[in-house]
């Protein structure tokens, strides 16, 4: 009987730990103003458990001629006609409980057409720090700060 109790206790403990980790990881979910406050990105959890973010609002969604702003700087010609609104900018972030970071993801910069390795960290509940970097070296990159809507 004692062995069953220990097993059950361990199972309950592991379940609570998993729920707590999931709650911690999900704190990044929501709509965020980008640093210049000219766009908003919605961060969500995918069915695979990764965190991604798509551009859901632009202050100026149209060009001067009235046409919809598109992903014109994309290095892949076939993707240059995609509208910016709805574009996935953050991909494949995984939460790391020990560091408190969402890591191993990428961030796409539609202004340059470049994709960077990236990690994210909440500074507080309403401030998200994102660092994009190159060549696998966190020192070679730049930061951006997003604020929760």
Topology:
Blueprint: H1 2-25, E1 30-33, E2 39-45, E3 51-58, E4 88-96, E5 101-109, E6 114-124, E7 127-134, E8 137-148
Antiparallel strand pairs: 1-2, 1-8, 2-3, 3-4, 4-5, 5-6, 6-7, 7-8
Q: Which class best fits the helix and strand makeup?
A: alpha+beta
Distance separating the two termini: 52 Å
Mean of the pLDDT scores? 89
**What is the CATH first-level class name?**
Mainly Beta
* Helix content estimate: 10-25%
What oligomerization state is this entry in? Answer: single chain
CATH topology: the name is: Lipocalin
Can you summarize the main beta sheet? 8 strands, antiparallel, barrel
Q: What is the number of strand segments?
A: 8
Provide the domain count. 1
Radius of gyration: 19 Å
Q: Output the number of helix runs.
A: 1
Low-confidence stretches: 15-20
CATH architecture: Beta Barrel
Write the H/E string, N to C: HEEEEEEEE
Q: How big a fraction of the residues is strand?
A: over 45%
Global outline: globular
What does this 3D model show about the protein?
With 149 residues, this protein is α+β, with helices and mostly antiparallel strands. It has one domain: Lipocalin, CATH 2.40.128. 16% of the residues lie in helices and 46% in strands. The chain is built from one helix and eight strands. The protein has one helix at 2-25, and strands at 30-33, 39-45, 51-58, 88-96, 101-109, 114-124, 127-134, 137-148. Strands 1-2-3-4-5-6-7-8 form an eight-stranded antiparallel beta barrel. A hairpin with a 4-residue loop joins strand 5 and strand 6 (114-124). The longest helix has 24 residues, at 2-25.
């Amino acid at each position: 009987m004692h062995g069953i109790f220990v097993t059950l206790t361990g199972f309950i403990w592991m379940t609570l730990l998993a729920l707590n980790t999931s709650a911690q990881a999900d704190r990044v979910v929501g709509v965020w103003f980008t640093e210049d406050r000219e766009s908003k990105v919605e961060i969500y959890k995918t069915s695979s458990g990764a965190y991604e973010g798509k551009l859901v609002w632009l202050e100026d969604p149209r060009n001067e001629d009235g046409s919809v702003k598109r992903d014109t700087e994309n290095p892949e010609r076939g993707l240059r006609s995609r509208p910016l609104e709805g574009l996935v900018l953050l991909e494949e972030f995984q939460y790391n409980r020990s560091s408190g970071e969402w890591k191993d993801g990428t961030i796409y910069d539609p202004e340059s057409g470049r994709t960077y390795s990236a990690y994210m960290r909440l500074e507080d509940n309403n401030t998200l720090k994102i660092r994009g970097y190159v060549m696998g070296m966190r020192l070679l990159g730049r930061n951006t700060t997003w604020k929760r809507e």
